[in-house]
Amino acid sequence: MYKILVVDDEEMIRRLITKYAAFEGHSVVEAADGMQAVQMCREGEYDILIIDIMMPELDGFSACREIRKFSDIPIIMLSARGEEYDKINGFSLGIDDYVVKPFSPKELMLRVDAVMKRVRASAKPSDSAPANEIIALGGLKADLTARIVYIDGERADMSPKEYELFFYMLKNRNIALSRDKLLSEVWGYDYFGDDRTLDTHIKLLRRSLGKYADYIVTLRGVGYRFDTGKIL
């Protein structure tokens, strides 16, 4: 099973998560603040990190920012706040899921399983992927093999999930993609979580694309389409 690092300044929350994680067969290590979390991630190896936002010493956002400088460990962020701004901030740092307090421990464990399945599936090498697969559309250039995007010659800085979403939409450009289709293909067929996560990542992706943001068209009641009709 998984080795989980749980970071929260509330001991009761840590104990609750530890109890349910142990019941599922996982091992858990606890930390009480962001500073400890960063240090422990530097010194040890964990399969996944569950971290609160509001903590002393170093908040969850700052801790994730530091951890992402040296580790790609999957991260689930906990917060008593469900505002879209906080979710966007978290996902832009490269977290994998966002859970609002109060939460169901059983649901949290399901989210842990879902995140780990997606991460391990994406890590498997694909023999069918062509070498140097590149899509160029006007000022947009995407190297799917190297996972690099250029916007008018400048390299774009995107989170891992933004890359996956953008590449999938590029491969299926000019096709109406339903919300369910995008969630199942980009997040996984067994995706367990808030479907508003898709809308949050679309906003992040549009922000990353700058002047090309309008090429992602919202289809009311359906989903989205990457429309190349206006790209010269």
Entry summary:
The protein has 232 residues and is α/β, with parallel strands linked by helices. The chain contains eight helices and twelve strands.
Unreliable runs: none
Q: Oligomer, anyone?
A: single chain
Going across the biggest sheet, name each strand in turn: 2-1-3-4-5
| Protein structure class | alpha/beta
Relative helix content: 40-55%
CATH class of the largest domain: Alpha Beta
Question: What is the tally of helical segments?
Answer: 8
Mean pLDDT reading? 88
Strand percentage: 15-25%
Query: In total, how many beta strands?
Result: 12
Q: What count of structural domains?
A: 2
The major β-sheet equals: 5 strands, parallel
Instruction: Output the radius of gyration.
Output: 18 Å
Distance between the termini: 50 Å
Description:
With 232 residues, the chain is α/β, with parallel strands linked by helices. The chain has two domains: 3-123, Rossmann fold (3-Layer(aba) Sandwich); 134-226, Winged helix-like DNA-binding domain superfamily/Winged helix DNA-binding domain (Arc Repressor Mutant, subunit A, Orthogonal Bundle). It is 41% helix and 21% strand. The chain is built from eight helices and twelve strands. The strands form three sheets. A five-stranded parallel β-sheet has the order 2-1-3-4-5, sandwiched between helices. Strands 6-7-8-9 form a four-stranded antiparallel β-sheet, with helices on one face. Helix 4 links the parallel strand 4 and strand 5 (97-100). The protein is elongated. The protein starts with a strand and ends in a 6-residue tail after the last strand. The mean pLDDT is 88.
